[in-house]
Write a structure and sequence with these properties.
Layout lengths: L7 E6 L7 H17 L4 E6 L1 H4 L7 H18 L7 E4 L4 H10 L5 H6 L1 H10 L7 H4 L1 H11 L4 E3 L5 H18 L7 E3 L32 H9 L20 H9 L2 H7 L6 H10 L4 H27 L2 H30 L7 H13 L1
Parallel strand pairs: 1-2, 2-3, 4-5
Length: 366
Amino acid sequence: MNMKKEKIILTGDRPTGKLHIGHYVGSLRRRVELQNSGLYDRIFVFEADGQALTDNIDNPSKVRSNVIEVALDYLAAGLDPEKTTLFIQSQIPELCELTFYFLDLVSVSRLQRNPTVKTEIRMRGFDESIPAGFLAYPVSQAADIAAFRATHVPAGEDQEPMLEQCREIVRRFNYIYGETLVEPEIMLPDNSACLRLPGTDGKAKMSKSLGNCIYLSDSADEVERKVKSMYTDPGHLRVSDPGRLEGNCVFTYLDAFCRAEHFGRYLPEYASLDELKAHYTRGGLGDMKVKKFLAAVMQEMLEPIRKRRAEFEKDIPSVYEILRKGCEQAREVAANTMADVRRAMKINYFDDTSLIDERAASGKED
């Protein structure tokens, strides 16, 4: 009899700061859509605090304080603990155990060739002093995914090398020990503008240290100020000048957030974003008018999130209780996977009665 293969999603974030709109369009918004689609059997969203410590080991308070901030962002964005299991990585010890076994299935040179790891190492200036835990980041990530037998992982394009490394490790495990674990598929954002949303200053990546983020928890005034200061086209000095769309953050954000109905509400003289772009590129449209439109679009999206966050902030103990229950549920699933892993690896000594009986019988024969 054919058993229906479960469709399971796993994804998460490092709790090193509040989540920003890059997180929202890159993954969080889609997580909520997937959660509400009813197409998946289980959805796990976790805070990777253990992985966050690989480059914050001397600053655990940073990670500790941001666990609740990220949880608030999750709930405010619409993740529902009745539909999605929210948990904290460090509270699931089975993940460490599986990482330990997976480390034997990958070489150091393979980890060093991982494009995502190479980029992160360069960004952090580790050079020759790379923490072993940071280098093994893809192995830990593979264990997170495999422990929950995730079939789908929503992530940005920069995570594709990590997912491929996970598949390699899972394939090698299954080749050696028999079909036990599941190879995951990556789910990229369906809007190309959401693949990598730039910072408000035009830099390729949003970063708290660069101060170029719009956070989901920002006040309306903060959002307004940040949109007004956004990088556009440095050559667009006068309203009459033709403007460039390439590298213009305002239009990149409009690609990610703007919908057809926004024009009727906030900019009725234009029928579509294409029409707005055409006017800007031929000249006669000022940056501030476009920014004002973008600000209205952003406020409409963020206001419900701000309100929900404010409600959850009134009862922080309940938020921790949601996380605690989520950890219990997640640990039960991971423990079941680890029982299968130990059985496959033949290290389930006390559960294997045939092993005990066989050894007992051979002892009597001696």
